[in-house]
Amino acid sequence: MIMDRAFLNVMILSWGFMLVFAAFQTMGNIEKTVLSSINQDNPNFTGDAYTSLAIIYAVFSICNWLAPSYISMTGPRVAILTGACCYVLFIASFFCPNDGLLYGMSAILGIGAALIWTGHGQYLTENSDSETMSRNAGIFWAIFQSSQFAGNLFVYFVFNSDKIDASRRRIVFSVLTALALVGTLVLAFLRKAPQKLSLGEAEGVSSADKELQLPEPVRDRPLVAAWQAFVDALKLFLTPRMLILSLTFIYTGLELTFYSGVYSSSVGFTVAMGEKRKSFVGLSGIFIGVGEVVGGAIFGILASKVSRNCSGSPVVLVGLVVHLFAFISIFLNLPNNAPFGDTDQTAHIISSPILAMAGSLALGFGDACYNTQIYSLLGVLFVKESAPAFALFKFCQSVAAAISFSYSTHAGLHIQLLVLFITIIFGTGAFWYVERTVKKSKNEDQPEVDPTLVEPTSGED
């Protein structure tokens, strides 16, 4: 019954996130294209999508240090709900295009993002153990990333011409705001995680085999709890394992920037893609979502076999190979100045929509490889420090994303791909090293069992 309730909590969390981010990820995917069309209709509006996204992730990175303190006073469910409300407000702000409002709501969204993602990490861990963490992370990722389908499929049919007029924009904004609002209502039904008791060797379960999450004691004074949570996060960040893993986190932030805000818009800006190139922005998002869902489903359904037989490093290695294919195909298929606006510049080969969609699929699948294994590793490695661990993951990721969005306004496509190529090597190596050391230390700490002391059991038992 406990595990049934915990799994139901994971499903509510997953579907709530799916709806909220069906709105936000679609908006992030089309923001550059949409703001460019608004500027054509209203030259007084100069809001820039990359600047908006940079503000989101800059504030996100700062607030990740404060999110564990907030959660220590309110709990993860309140933090998740508060963050979801910020997403609704951000999307609704596009009805009134104004530079100050755009950047102000971007900052508010950065605060909400820190709360919803740190709360998500703790809540997912509270409803999982070392046997179910990898499965739950994979299921969450598959359902969550299916958000790419609905919103981007809608955009594909609405943005079916070169010019995106005001009426079409209003339709998109209305649908996305409604989606985010429904997702927030779903998250309001999140229930408290079931109480979990530690099973010792007397009950037949070794702590080395199954480590169960124990709720942290509630501190009496909220301000003391908030300060202690901040100190705990700082101490955890300075540990060798977390510092090394930060290289992996940084790479996921850079590639998040690329696939969510740069790549799909670049496809739509490439004139050689044809008259329907604007609709390819939504189609690219759909293929990214397909890759995310397939990757999450594979490593969720097969999570127990993968983690038992070969750990997470081979999965990350698959992500490395898939992302390298994506980077090479994008380098050949799109012109260097595609991120900045409509361009007649030619690529190294004749630009192909089919190859562009293959790149989208590869970006999504590789991203799922990295993120599902990071969630799994953090949920098991830092089971009693889940809030600060996930906050630090999101801190490093959002700092990298903010920096990447900042230089995306000036750096051509080839420079961005070079940065991704370098950081993926270091990030993959860092993950492999940490997981290898963790596995080695567990093997050394696990005592050998004398076969003569093991009581045989009959088949009837």
From TrEMBL:
It holds the Pfam family UNC-93. InterPro entries: Ion_channel_UNC-93 (IPR010291), MFS_trans_sf (IPR036259), UNC-93-like_regulator (IPR051617). Residues 441-461 are annotated as: Disordered. It comes from the Eukaryota. Its main location: membrane. It is a multi-pass membrane protein. It is found in: Membrane. The chain crosses the membrane at residues 7-27, 47-66, 78-95, 139-159, 171-190, 242-260, 280-303, 315-334, 346-366, 413-434. Keywords: Glycoprotein, Membrane, Transmembrane, Transmembrane helix. One of its GO terms (cellular component) is membrane. Belongs to the unc-93 family. PANTHER family: ET TRANSLATION PRODUCT-RELATED, UNC93-LIKE PROTEIN MFSD11. This is UNC93-like protein MFSD11.
